[in-house]
Amino acid sequence: MELLLNSRKDAGRVDFLVGRQRASGEPLKPSRLLFRCPDEQLATRVERLFAELPSGLQPPAWKATWLLRTGALVPVEKLSPTGIKTYLACPYRFYLRYALGMNAPDIDLHELNALGFGSLVHNVLDVFGQDEKARQLLDAEAIHQFFSKELHRQVAQNFGATPSLPLQVQQQIAERRLYQVALVQAGERAEGWEIIDSEREFERELDGLLIRGRIDRIERNTKTGTIRVLDYKTSNTAKTPAQMHWASFDEERDGEVTPEYARVDIKIKNRSGQRRWADLQLPLYAWALEPFFGNEVCLGYFNIPAVGVNTGIELLDPHDSEVQDLAMECASGVVADVKATRFWPPAGKLQYDDFENILFEQPMITADKPGEVVR
Question: Buried-most residue among 78, 233, 237, 273 (CB within 10 A)?
C-alpha cells in the first residue's frame, strides 16, 4: 500500500474498493488501516464506512448448479476394516468410493503424500518383520542399520538412484523416525515380544458378506505366551486407539445420521457416557484371528509420529469380551445396511473429505440419493 501511494503521489491516483458484505449478504468489517487518518477526518470516514447500504437487489443465496447423480445402485460385495470406518463416517461417501470406485487423484504430486509416506515406512517394517534373523535382533543400532539399508533400497527401487530433492528430504525424515522405532523395538524384544507374522492377510465372512484385510504385525510374548496385534500409524501426531475408535456423540448433532448400532455407552479413562463407534479396525483384527489365537489377544497401535513425540506402542483400552461383542454388533449393523443398500443420508462436514470439491460439504443439496430415479 505504501508503494502504491508513493509511486503515484506526484501524478495519478489510487482508488480503494471496500467490500461491505459477502456474496451471502453477511456484513464485512472494514480494515483497521482505513482508520489510520488525521483525527479531523475520522468521524466522516466512520460515517461513510458504516452508512446504510443503498436499497436494491441482494445477491442470491448460494446453490448448486447441478446435482451429483450416480445412476442405478451398484451392490457392494466385500468390505474391509477401512471401508467399515468410512461407512461409519458417511454412508454416501462410502458408496462413492467403494461401490463406484471414485477417488481424488493428485495430478500435481511431486513428493509422497501421507499415504505414500506411510506405505514406504510400512514396507520397510514389513521386510524387517518377515526376516526371521533380523526380528531377533536385540541391539537398537543393528536394528536401525537394517531399517536404513532397506529404506535406501526401496527408495532407489521405486524412485531411482537420484530421487528428487523433496523425496530425499522425506527419506531423511523416514530414517529419523525409523531410528526411534529401532529404540522401541529393541526394548520390546528385550521384554519378550517376538514378531511371528507381518502383513498377514485375512478373509472371513460376517453375516453373508466377505470381510478382507491385512494386519501389520502379530507378536507373541516368549515369557507369557500373550498374543499382541499391532497396526503401524505414521501420522505426524500420535493418537491412542481409543481416540480413533470412539468419537463423542451428541443427540442433537449426530442423532439423525448415527444408527443405533453405532452408539455405545462405554467408560474411557474413568469417564462414562454415550459415544459412537468411529472405527472397528482393531476389534475386527481380533475377530479375524479368533480361529487361530482364541479371543484373548492384546490390540494396539505402534505409533511412528514426527520425531520426538510419543513413538511407541499404545493399547486399545478398554478392550474385553464385552467391548469386543459391542464392536461386532456394530460391524454386523454396517454389513446389514450395506447389503440393504442403505447409503443415505450423508454426513455433512467431515474432517477429511476426499469429495469436498464436488459435494461442497453440503451433500444433502449437492447430490441425489443413490438409485434415485431422475424424472
Answer: 233
| Predicted TM-score of the model (pTM) | 0.82
* pLDDT tens across the length of the chain (375 residues): 889 989 998 889 999 888 888 766 778 888 998 899 999 999 999 998 888 877 766 667 778 888 899 989 999 999 999 999 999 999 999 999 999 999 877 666 677 888 899 999 999 999 999 999 999 999 999 999 999 999 999 999 988 888 889 899 999 999 999 999 999 999 999 999 999 999 999 999 999 999 999 999 999 999 999 999 999 999 999 999 999 999 998 887 777 788 999 999 998 888 888 899 999 999 999 999 999 999 889 999 999 999 777 899 999 999 999 999 999 999 999 999 999 999 999 988 888 888 988 898 889 889 999 987 654
d(CA 34, CA 212): 61
The residue type found at 50 is: F
Domain boundaries, position 40: 17-62
* Statement to judge: residues 198 and 293 lie in one domain: yes
3-state secondary structure of 38: coil
Domain contains 372: no
Distance CA(241)–CA(300), nearest Å, equals: 6
Q: Which residues contact 237 (CB under 8 A, 6 or more apart)?
A: 305, 306, 309
